[in-house]
Amino acid sequence: MGAGVLLGVAVSLAAGGDAWEPQRERMVAEQIAGRDVTDGAVLRAMRRVPRHLFVPERARAEAYGDFPLPISHGQTISQPYIVAYMTQLLRLKPGAKTLEVGTGSGYQAAVLAEVTRTNVYSIEIVEPLAKTASERLKQLGYGQVVVKHGDGYLGWPEHAPFDAIIVTAGAAHVPPPLIGQLKRGGRMVIPVGGAWTVQSLVIIEKLPDGTVKKRDDLPVRFVPLTGKGQNRE
Fold it and tell me: 7: number of CA atoms within 13 Å, CB side?
């Protein structure tokens, strides 16, 4: 989709001309609030972000379905429920500084921006995806999302520490640089496990004294986290 088309769509959305709104409402009611997502800010964000503009045009009719969808370069956009659930686990407050590892289409970053109302830093290792997502987010009015092409395993030390970190790819282990960049009192949510297998969604909390608590949550399946950092222990 060209920038001019996206800009026209953004203007249409701002003017209330969104014909997809009923599908978003149904998605939230049946797939998200109908399960166990109760955070009002997250539910509002899921109602607002036009998910159909973050998927390839050929998949647009399925954009609000209860499943992930392929985007390009072997990557996916996560199931709406997983996006909402992981966002809720972060316990975000307005103004929270958030790091996302794995920009993909930019959809999760847009949801984060809706909740925090401030800058979101997002890293994508696939350069064409980083470029397309950055352009898409700007055209849709999410200029507070800063996208960088790079190895997310290493985090973004220039902007650390972060109140929250979300990783949207399956890691073989929790990257130490990300733990180091998490603020005391902050939370990280990351899928951990083997590539292309069922992984465990891990919640990491850094306590005020700097100690780290980890606990496993849902079984999930994400595309693998890639980059040189994944070979490090």
Answer: 4
pLDDT along the chain (233 residues), means of 10: 40 58 97 97 98 96 97 94 98 97 98 97 97 98 97 97 97 96 98 88 97 96 80 49
Strands 145-149, 162-167: parallel, antiparallel or unpaired by DSSP? unpaired
Q: 202, 190 in Cβ contact below 8 A?
A: yes
Catalytic site positions: 78
Residue owning tokens 């520490």:
161
Q: Is 140 exposed, middle or buried (0-12, 13-18, 19+ CB in 10 A)?
A: buried
Question: DSSP for 152-183?
Answer: GGG--GGG--EEEEEE-SBBSS--HHHHHHEE
Asked if 175 and 226 count as a contact pair (C-beta separation under 8 A), the reply is no
All structural domains of the chain, each given as residue ranges with its CATH number in brackets, are 3-226 (3.40.50.150)
Which residues, other chains included, contact 231 with Cβ-Cβ below 8 Å and sequence gap of 6+? none
CA distance 38 to 34: 9
CB of 198 within 8 A of CB of 222? no
